[in-house]
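The authors assume throughout that readers already know how a fold can be written as discrete tokens. Each protein is reduced to its one-letter sequence and a matching series of backbone shape codes. I therefore recommend that a typical entry be quoted early in the introduction. For illustration, here is how one protein appears when written out as sequence plus structure tokens:
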Amino acid sequence: MNSLYIINNPQKLSEALPFIGENDGILLIEDAVVLATSDSAQTHCKNQFALEEDLIARGVKDKSQASWELVDYPRFVELTLTFDKSITWL
């Protein structure tokens, strides 16, 4: 069963990583999108996404790393339907 982990706080990613499998997905939203601008947010997960609107709102879209796929809100919804379940780390 593949899960989509939705992370909204940068500090929460390290808490979630032990539970995230290679075929799961990570979606960074809100303040957590700053992790997509740094090489330090390396994960073992193949499916890494960051909400583009939140990157724009924080003025860091141009700094996003290629390993993170930028998604819009319609794609966010699509991801929640693609994965078997969604888990939000608050």
Helices lie at 12-16, 52-57, 73-82. The mean pLDDT is 93. The first strand starts at residue 3 and ends at 7.
